[in-house]
Amino acid sequence: MAVDIGNTETSWGVFEGDRLTARWSTSTVIERTADEYRVLLSSLLAERGFSRGDITHAAMCSVVPPLTGIFEALLGGTLAVKPLVVGAGIKTGIRIRMDNPREVGADRIVNAVAAHNIYTGAVIIIDMGTATTFDTISADGDYLGGAIAPGLKTSIESLYAHTAMLPRIDLTRPEKAIGTNTVTAMRSGLIFGYSGLIEGLVKRIKNELGQQASVVATGGLANIIAGEVKSIDDVKPDLTLTGLKLLHKLNLE
Questions:
Q1: DSSP class of residue 162?
Q2: Taking the chain, what is the end-to-end CA distance rounded to the nearest angstrom?
Q3: Does the pTM of the predicted model rise above 0.85?
């Protein structure tokens, strides 16, 4: 089992060999107790016909510190397996060329490992979640850094919370850039605006790299934006879960 604990959503996946056979996405709720998460995990497994004894290994990454220990105990107690927790001291197969490597989120390291193993040459990863992050990995497996911008949903909630007359909207592609009402104008700014942000940053990153790079998008909102951004070469919704599987295998060996 692979578990990616994000700020907004938690992704769960079950691998049989190298094949992802089950996947779930649940809300990340800090207020849930360990018992509530135990019931949730048991129901997810039962839904797909798994028993707790079917899971023989586990790996997890977390960007929500209050939940890291809870999930480590959850997987260890409910599944009776000691999970690999992505953090300092584990083998990754990549080199982190940051001023302070400990600042890099665990999910970004996991994505970098997956991308370096899947693609040939340099890779730029765009992860569209609570934040929109850009990570750059050289052809030799060096994590070079990247960029962080507010996520689409974060921007929607900020507009709704801090403006008196703008509504909360869903993310639907507008027919044109010139919105003829408040909702279509907001959708234009968000969908087309973020597309321009991504195109611009990818261009700058490639110029600084001085070489070609594959551009892969992941995260819950990747499919919404990918169709608008010509520089995105591939969409991998399960990149983080795949990276957890690869890291578990590397450290098990």
A1: H
A2: 17
A3: yes
